[in-house]
Structure formats: C-alpha cells, structure tokens
Amino acid sequence: RFSQTKKNDADWLLTQTAVRPLVGIVCGSGLGGLADLLKDQVAFNYRDIPNFPQSTVHGHAGRLVFGTLKGRPCVCMQGRFHLYEGYPIQKITLPMRIFKMLGVKTVILTNAAGGLNQDFKVGDIMIIKDHLNMPGFAGNNPLTGPNDERFGVRFPCMSDAYDRELLQMAMDVGSELGYSDFLREGVYCALGGPSFETIAECRMLHKLGVDAVGMSTVHEVIVARHCGMRVFALSLITNQAVMDYDSEEKANHNEVLQTAKQRAQQLEKLVSTMVIRMKHNNNYS
Ligand SMILES: O=P(O)(O)O[C@@H]1C[C@H](O)[C@@H](CO)O1
Ligand SMILES: Nc1nc2[nH]cnc2c(=O)[nH]1
C-alpha cells in the first residue's frame, strides 16, 4: 500500500508537468535559491502534493520546482524534511522514491553543517566523500521494514554511496571557477537534532574522523542509493562546531542562514555548472 501511495504521488506529478527530470536536487537550510536557477518553472507547494509532508523549518520554503538548466530537465526540492520534525524516517525520504519514479538518474543533495575539521573555515564548501549514520547505529534506518524489491535489494552496499566521478568533477569545476580556496572534501555525520551538539559530543565526533556535522542528508542518500540513483552531496560549513570550554561561540540557526546567504551564489554556480556538464548516461568525460 505504501508503494501504491508513492506511485500515486509520482503519477499525479507526471500529469501536472511535461518535464521528465534526470537530475533531482535537494536544497539545504537557506540554500533554496538553487531552485530559482531553473528555467520554464512549474512549481508545486508541498501542501498541494498528495501525501507529501510539509516543511516546518525556517529556510526551507516547501516547494517542488520542475524546470531546466541549459536544457537539462531537473526537479528541485526547495526545502527538505528532517527527523526532528517528527516525521517517520520513511516519510522524510519518500521524495527520493518519487524522484526515482519520475525518472531521476542523479541526485544532488546540499546541506548546512557545523565544521569539526580544524582546517575548515565558515563558508567552506565540503564535498561529501563518506558519512556516519548515527541514527542508523541506533536502528533508525529508512530501509527498516519490509524491503520493496522493485526499488532495490535488502542489503544495499554503501561503500560506494558518493559517486567518485562526480566528486572529481566538483573539484575540477570548483578549481575552474576559482573556488579552490574554500572547496574541501570530507566525512559528514548526521545526528537526529534538533539540539546542536555539546562540546563533548563535538570532541567525540572529531576523534571519530568526522569533518562536518548536521541533521540530514544521509537518510536521503541511503534511499537514493538503494534504488540505484547516482549521488553527489555537499555541505556548506555555516558555523564552527564548538570544541572548547572557553569558547563564547553558540551554534544557532540564524548564523546558519546568514552564512548560507553569503555563500549561496557560489554554491549555486558550482552545482549548476556540474549539472550542465553531467553526462546522463552515467559517464563523466
Ligand atoms: O537541511 P539542512 O541539513 O541543511 O539543515 C541544517 C540542519 C538543521 O535542520 C538546521 C540547523 O541550523 O540546518
Ligand atoms: N548538527 C548540526 N547541524 C548543523 N547545521 C548547521 N550547523 C550545524 C551544527 O553545528 N550542527
């Protein structure tokens, strides 16, 4: 029945627009401007899409935007769902299955995150090369429950979750755009939120090899990879995680949105250049 519901959502969306997207984009906190790059837009408020959850977080507009980027058909989630909003984990990742049913081949996920790597600065863009799924360690995985074989296998591999060719493409495009000074790569860790981390938690995550910490993305990545879509993801380092008891810094959502605003244009340029350069037969040359 769950699967039928998803099919209905996808069918409904397909009847509303002629765009058949090959690329699906998810905008992180304050990064919704990405959707505004799309031409010939057809946009839906989440509240108008059957069975779709609603955005409840400031900086997540709650619109699904179809359109093209230099002729490449795309769909963009202007706002995502988070565990802390109270939705079941299968519900927050439902859009990935809808992307799949719309024909999406490549998913691009963005997020705002706190920097743990001491070499990172606020405003850096970190290309995600791997993740730690903390809610997953506690049994909260979006693939929990009966496996729908039509989407993918029971035990999907995650060692190849982040496409290495797209990671290399991001580095190449970033260097051509003159972004090398603030382009990094690293490991992202998702926590449940909504509280930010304590100092002890930041120290622990740093010791575990985490470069940036956030509250999203990995659940979407798992579902996207389960159904065979190619994944590229990046974090905007919007704040430095507090590691020191003498620090006066306090993580807050306003700072997150403020940093996102300052770096949004460059991040959008990086993503849009990549989309235009992507070969949709899964080859990058
Ligand atoms: O959707 P993302 O991961 O960009 O949102 C981050 C995590 C929290 O939702 C919020 C904290 O400021 O930003
Ligand atoms: N968990 C977490 N999420 C964030 N999103 C943006 N900044 C942060 C942060 O410092 N911690």
How would you summarize what this structure contains?
The chain has 285 residues and is an alpha/beta fold.
Bound ligand species: the ligand O=P(O)(O)O[C@@H]1C[C@H](O)[C@@H](CO)O1, guanine
Strand numbers in spatial order across the main sheet: 5-8-7-6-9
Distance between the termini: 42 Å
Helix content: 25-40%
> What's the rounded overall pLDDT mean?
94
How many individual β-strands?
9
Q: Please mark out the parts with pLDDT under 50 across 5 or more consecutive residues, or reply none.
A: none
Q: Measured on Cα atoms, how large is the radius of gyration?
A: 18 Å
Total of DSSP H or I helical runs spanning 4+ residues: 8
Q: Can you give keywords for this protein?
A:
285 residues; alpha/beta; Rossmann fold; 5-stranded mixed β-barrel; 9 strands; globular; binds ligand LQZ7MJT6; binds guanine
Word description of this protein:
- A 5-stranded mixed beta barrel has the order 5-8-7-6-9.
- The chain is built from 8 helices and 9 strands.
- The N and C termini lie far apart (42 Å).
- The chain has one domain: 3-Layer(aba) Sandwich (Rossmann fold).
- Helix 1 (2-16) packs across helix 3.
- With 285 residues, it is of the alpha/beta class.
- It has helices spanning 2-16, 89-92, 94-102, 134-137, 164-176, 199-207, 218-226, 253-277; strands at residues 23-26, 39-45, 63-69, 72-78, 106-115, 125-133, 183-190, 212-214, 230-240.
- The structure holds the ligand O=P(O)(O)O[C@@H]1C[C@H](O)[C@@H](CO)O1 and guanine.
- Residues 112-114, 191, 193, 196-197, 213-215, 238-239, 241, 251, 256 line the site of guanine (GUN).
- Guanine binds at residues 112-114, 191, 193, 196-197, 213-215, 238-239, 241, 251, 256.
